[in-house]
Amino acid sequence: MRKMVDCRDHPSEMHCTLVIAGEEEEVVRAATEHAVSVHGHADSPELREQIRASLKDEAPQHA
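Above: the chain's sequence. Below: its structure in token form.
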């Protein structure tokens, strides 16, 4: 099952609306890079665990 993380679930002054979806490790990696480069967080094991804990299952897309 693909996972997703949505910046709207973590309000910020930037009002970021980015959604990242994919395999769990891909999402954790991309969300960490986004949190560091856009939101100014420090890359740390704690940040990665917070991101991992906030992952949701992606809703299936119907054609």
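Residues 3-57 form one domain.
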